[in-house]
From TrEMBL:
Domain of life: Bacteria
Protein name: Oligosaccharide flippase family protein
Topology with respect to the bilayer: Multi-pass membrane protein
Lineage of origin: Bacteria, Pseudomonadati, Bacteroidota, Flavobacteriia, Flavobacteriales
Stored Pfam families: Polysacc_synt (PF01943)
UniProt keyword list: Cell membrane, Membrane, Transmembrane, Transmembrane helix
Major localization listed first in the record, in broad terms: membrane
Ranges annotated as spanning the membrane: 9-29, 44-64, 76-94, 114-135, 147-166, 186-204, 225-242, 262-280, 301-327, 339-359, 371-390, 396-416, 428-448, 454-474
Location relative to the cell: Cell membrane
Length: 485
């Protein structure tokens, strides 16, 4: 547990920092560009997640699973790396060659250049995926953190330069002149440069992979394990971001562009909730596999689930009682404020998918990853049906409810199925009460008392103290000082 907490803290700090860069960048973008101008950014990057999953096709999780039995690290990393490399090169070639018809098919005929930039960026990120896995496997979190943070810094500084500094100099800087027509495209360029530098910084890890160490027999086994993970990951991304495509295709062009921009810009606030989940996931996945044979493994899973839910509920509660202030300060553009009211629903959707990811360990440990694909397919079907039928009437509100309905269904199905195949005695009653209380307080407060921030934070502190004490997350010395036993 101490080792897990140490690695999670370091990976978590790294994740928080690197996620803070795009998080801080977003207000710069929303302040500069209205929803319609912002929409290409939300549009393309909603598809980018799907492509990223296909390019890596589950090899990251598969690597950690096979590292338990495969003693030859060179063979394992080479097989995984060249699998990703081959898929990425095919994608890179066909996307660049057919970028114009692809842009037309996706209703972005005037964004061919942005499509090309994004294509190369995603290819570089895919090339870097397995080297990052090697850093995690070899427990080199400092190098991992250094490269990730450098990527974020470069991306942030370039966005500031292109969007804030460069427009102030009509004559240009370093022979560069700001082009209003290119606009949001500068954000794509910043991402491309940052990904290029990251790829170059991983050259030592890239040299580990050798084509002579590639094993067809091992690759067949890895693909058999990884393709259901790919389907599950693909379904997860579709659930998370593909509603932007529904907004674009199911609404009239101008309305769709506006709704897409508002929804994409406002949804970035959910990053507050996602940060903890991602930090936790980075440390927890290798830990789950390496400790799966311990006799007290299930007891540890129960405790970790309790902690995960408690901390997430506190994050959601704090955000909800301060949402009116946080969202407006963060977005910093009245054109987006109409969408703030969807955020409490998206916060709880993020909580549900986090619980699902914790529950999913049962089918990964039992090598039943196909079950994850089935569950994710149900989630995707829920998302598609709700978006398809209700977006024409309710716009991004339909996307909001589709997200929480999909994640809730996946969470419940995974729990029920898991208790049958790999029973873990989770504290279902206690955690359900905690989630329900958090939902009632958060939604009621935002609906009726959102202007009274002081009262909201007082309620938050009271519930936080009770919850942290219940989960034994407050040191006894502190409890003694404040008179609580």
């Amino acid at each position: 547990m101490k080792k897990l907490l140490g690695q999670t803290a370091l990976y978590g700090l790294t994740t928080v920092i690197i996620r803070l860069f795009p998080f801080v960048i977003n207000p710069i973008i929303t302040r500069t560009f209205g929803p319609s101008a912002y929409s290409p950014y939300a549009d393309f990057y909603s598809v980018a997640g799907v492509i990223a999953v296909l390019l890596t096709h589950g090899m990251e999780t598969t690597f950690f699973r096979f590292a338990l039995d495969e003693k030859d690290d060179r063979k394992l990393i080479s097989t995984a790396f060249f699998s990703v490399l081959a898929v990425t090169l095919v994608y890179l070639f066909f996307t660049l060659v057919y970028r114009k018809p692809l842009a037309i098919a996706f209703k972005t005929p005037d964004q061919v250049d942005l499509l090309a930039i994004l294509t190369v960026t995603l290819a570089l990120d895919a090339f870097s995926a397995m080297p990052f896995v090697m850093l995690r496997k070899n427990e080199r979190p400092l190098k991992y953190a250094g490269i990730r943070i450098t990527n974020g810094i470069i991306n942030f500084l370039l966005v500031v330069f292109f969007i804030i500094i460069l427009p102030r100099y009509p004559e240009g800087i370093f022979s560069l002149k700001y082009s209003p027509e290119f606009g949001i495209g500068y954000v794509f360029v910043a991402n491309l440069v940052a990904s290029s530098v990251t790829f170059l910084m991983l050259y030592q890890e890239l040299l580990i992979a050798r084509i002579k160490h590639f094993s067809w027999e091992l690759w067949k086994k890895m693909i058999k394990y990884s393709w259901p993970i790919t389907i599950a990951g693909l379904a997860g991304i579709i659930n998370e971001t593909f509603d932007r495509q529904f907004l674009k295709f199911l609404l009239p062009e101008e309305i769709g562009r506006h709704e897409l921009g508002v929804y994409g810009g406002v949804a970035k606030v959910v990053t507050f909730v996602i940060l903890f989940r991602q930090a936790y996931s980075l440390g927890i996945e290798p830990f789950f596999f390496s400790n799966s044979k311990n006799k007290n493994a299930k007891e540890m899973y129960v405790k970790l689930m309790d902690i995960f839910i408690a901390i997430n509920c506190l994050i959601v509660l704090f955000l909800s009682v301060n949402l009116n202030l946080i969202a407006k300060v963060y977005i910093n553009n009245p054109e987006y404020y109409e969408g703030i009211s969807i955020l409490p629903i998206l916060f709880f959707a993020s909580l549900f998918i986090g619980i699902y990811l914790n529950l999913s360990i049962w089918y990964k440990l039992t090598d039943k990853t196909i079950i994850g694909a089935y569950i994710s397919a149900i989630g995707v079907l829920t998302t598609i049906i709700i978006n398809f039928y209700f977006i024409p009437k309710y716009g991004y509100w339909a996307s909001t409810w589709a997200t929480i309905a999909s994640y809730f269904a996946m969470m419940v199905i995974s729990y029920v199925w898991g208790q049958y195949k790999y029973p873990v005695p989770y504290n279902i009653y206690k955690n359900s009460i905690i989630i329900l209380v958090t939902m009632v307080v958060s939604l009621a407060y935002y609906q009726y008392l959102k202007e009274n921030i002081w009262l909201g934070n007082l309620i938050f502190l009271l519930l936080a103290t009770i919850l942290l004490k219940t989960e034994n997350l407050i040191p006894q010395k502190i409890l003694n000082k404040i008179g609580m036993k």
